[in-house]
Amino acid sequence: MTIDLEVDDTQREADPDALLVVDNLTVSFPTDDGVVQAVRGVSYTVRSGEAMGIVGESGSGKSVSSMAVMGLLPRNARISGSVRFRGQELIGLDEDEYAKLRGNRIAMIFQDPLTSLNPVYTIGFQIAEAVHAHHEVSKQAALERAVELLDIVGIPYPEQRINNYPHELSGGMRQRVVIAIAMANNPDVIIADEPTTALDVTVQAQVLEALETAREETGAALILITHDLGVIAGHAERIAVMYAGKLVETGTTEEVFYRPRMPYTLGLLGSLPRLDKQEHERLTPIKGAPPSLLNLPPGCPFTPRCPIAEDICDRDEPALLAAEGTGHAAACHFRSRVADIDAAEMFGTDAADDAPEVLA
Ligand SMILES: Nc1ncnc2c1ncn2[C@@H]1O[C@H](COP(=O)(O)OP(=O)(O)O)[C@@H](O)[C@H]1O
Ligand SMILES: [Mg+2]
Fold first, then answer.
1. Cα–Cα dist 60/262, whole Å
2. Is the CB of 54 under 6 A from ligand 1?
3. Architecture (CATH level 2) of domain 47-72+92-105+188-360
4. How far is ligand 2, taken at its centre, from the CA of residue 240, in Å?
5. How wide is the angle at C-alpha 19 spanned by C-alphas 178 and 189, nearest 5°?
6. pLDDT for position 278
7. Which of these, 18, 136, 178, 210, is most buried using a 10 Å CB contact count?
8. Which ligand is nearest to the CA of 110?
9. What's the confidence (pLDDT) of residue 11?
10. What pLDDT, on the 0 to 100 scale, is given for residue 247?
């Protein structure tokens, strides 16, 4: 038995801590081949100071949905729904107004730090510029703040480093510079889109730590976007799993890691390396690939890859509904059944007999 209650979002606006309220956001792109439905009715709320992870395979609409929030979509994008930041509607906001928010109240960190940094200016100059852009401070004060910020994000010898150009730094250091720039104006929210994807594993941990420090120092909320569930563990209190342009499971990180109710989430967890098992342990990959978002067929988009799919899954796309016995929501007709199946049973290998030990 499952309770067929739509997840109640009517109270979201009343939440005094609601900082960013995304409501039924849809984004599509008309192309010569048809309409790409990149984001199909995404709703979430981020509260002051909290960290939310958005996870999903490549092409699931993570970047497009966050670009919509930032007002950075290409002109041909069709957007509907609502994005309210501190009660202010952002969809349709003119560019001047957006520019006041971006980098100031809402900061963004991209996968490749070189897209955010200018190769012809020193990093000290660029951080100082970010400080200058929204505050009247002396050149000297801005540079001092740049040194301070570099120190905070863990760059050694910051007084010397401010004179370096981006190409003189490693990828991990460059990303920490971008985090320093993001912090420069004490933003209310930092959106980090695959901030560690281009870095190797040891550096990833340092960058995530710098991001954590940025949160502590600024009190900013964080939206951490990644294709890697392992990145979210320990860095976000809540998770939204995204598939084919929709959120398919949302809840606290603990809930979603330990009691997944959407087969896709179970699959993502099963393909995570386990820290508590021998390295030769086989993982449980989800076979197949996400669907094209061009002319998406009816039904649940996960059906072709889902071992427990039945006829109804081909016909009706499940809504994101409360999963009985848990404190969270999942978009699966058979979400209660998922409770009794582990990743290995579901996807057919001998790995992942319970949730991975990566939360600690
Ligand atoms: N400008 C665009 N024109 C057409 N399709 C686009 C455009 N930008 C993104 N898409 C499509 O939107 C979908 C979601 O992309 P994206 O949000 O970048 O995925 P993710 O960040 O989850 O990897 C993909 O199918 C992508 O090809
Ligand atoms: Mg992306």
1. 16
2. no
3. 3-Layer(aba) Sandwich (3.40)
4. 15
5. 5
6. 53
7. 178
8. 2
9. 52
10. 98
Rounded Cα gap, residues 135 and 102, in angstroms: 14
Q: Give burial (CB, 10 Å; 0-12/13-18/19+) of 277.
A: middle
Given a contact cutoff of 8 angstroms between Cβ atoms, the answer to whether 5 and 38 are in contact is no
Nearest C-alpha to atom 3 of ligand 1 is from which residue?
29
Pocket-testing residue among 36, 191, 223, 243, ligand 1, by greatest number of atoms within 8 A of Cβ = 36
Question: Tokens 């449980």 correspond to what residue?
Answer: 284
Q: Is 284 in a helix, a strand, or coil?
A: coil
CB 25: neighbour CB atoms within 10 A? 22
Domain definitions of the chain by residue range: 47-72+92-105+188-360, 118-184
pLDDT score for 345: 85
* pLDDT computed for residue 13 by the predictor: 55
| Cα–Cα nearest to 212, from 235, 192, 239 | 235
First to last CA, the chain: 32
| Ligand 1 in reach of 63 Cβ (< 6 A) | yes
Considering all CA atoms of the chain, what is the largest pairwise distance in Å, rounded to the nearest integer? 68
Residues of the chain with pLDDT under 70: 1-14, 273-283, 349-360
Helix, strand, coil % over all residues of the chain, rounded to 5: 35, 20, 45
